[in-house]
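Final report, Chapter 2: Outcomes

The project's central promise was a pipeline that accepts a single protein chain and returns its three-dimensional structure in a standardized token representation, suitable for archiving and comparison. That pipeline is now operational. To close this chapter, we reproduce one record exactly as it appears in the project archive, with the input sequence first and the structure output second.
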Amino acid sequence: MFAAPSVAASAHAFLDGLLGAERRKTGWMRAEAAGDPGPWRQQAILGRSRWNADALRDVVRDHVIETLGAPEAVLVIDETGFLKQGHASCGVGRQYTGSAGKITNCQIGVFAAYVSDKGHAFIDRQLYLPKAWTGDPARMTAAHVPAGIPFATKPQLALGMVERAIAAGVPFAWVTADTVYGVGEIELALRRAYKGYVLGVTGQHSFWSWGAEAEVSGTAEEIATALGEEDWIRLSAGAGTKGPRLYDWAYRELASLKADALDPTLDQSLWTRGLLVRRSLSDGSLAYFTTWCPAGTPIQELVAVEGRRWAIEDAFETAKTELGLAHNESRSWHGWHRHVSLVMLAFAMLARVRQLANGPPPKTTLIAKLAGSLVDPGNPARSDPTGATAH
């Protein structure tokens, strides 16, 4: 990753700072923890030093797959905001962020998290650039945005992450995301790659069935309104901080068709398109999801996939409160991606530690068995540490 030993040492110090006990991971705080007289070495790793943040992203992804990889894993796409003051930080502008729950001055980063039964961690990220930025060449140059970076919507950024994961051979069976990413090119790309999905859509998204037992057509909200109580089943979307996250769920199968109906190059396997509806137990509010899955997939599995989305929310919270994800002081394009990639590495390391801590104890080795046999209370000849009475 780092050609110069001094840059590698600075990266080590930066990573130590992210994993340290300081609550704020600013340059001064990280420098103090590293014993530096000032933050210049910490700042250089984000700015003047020569290294490729995308190469580090790929290293992190490969490490995550090596430790957490599983064929039935879920790729979760989501975004988070970084509150900022001023107008110089790359990508900053007045835009909505769920982090603040309002439109405010911030940066938006789109992320992909890998979630399996072994744990979860980030594997991709990209800074979103509003049109106010991509349409202003002078502003792009001042923030060191690489030449040729066009405007891309958040779903387009997500599509790029899915395509990179597929090209890298990342093992996963599903993708889930909220309504920002629910329809469009990402659906077709996932179908062609034989990946299932549970993607959020609005209540006004239109659905219709063909070849199903019962004809269904209309908006998601209209279809949900026509459901009877017998159509709902209470299931947990996974364990939460206060126990199982219970909701009522309903599923409407809209069509089952062979994969090659979408693309003649695909095989003959049968896949099903459907509508999944979630109803809150507290206020009855509804959420809607378009689904694509192998024929015969039970609703319980679709619910479990949708429930994986909590993992990226947990990752954002942990990365911001424990690893300084939101403490980036660099204003440049490469500074943002370098900082975030180093945080991703720190999070992946913690995910591995968590996996080991929560896993089964190590297997007893032959050496351990032999060592244990030398201490036998029932046999003085074998328990004498001096060996004086040994056979």
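Archive annotation: Residues 108 and 128 are 6 Å apart (CA to CA).
This record, like all others produced under the grant, will remain available to the consortium after the project formally closes.
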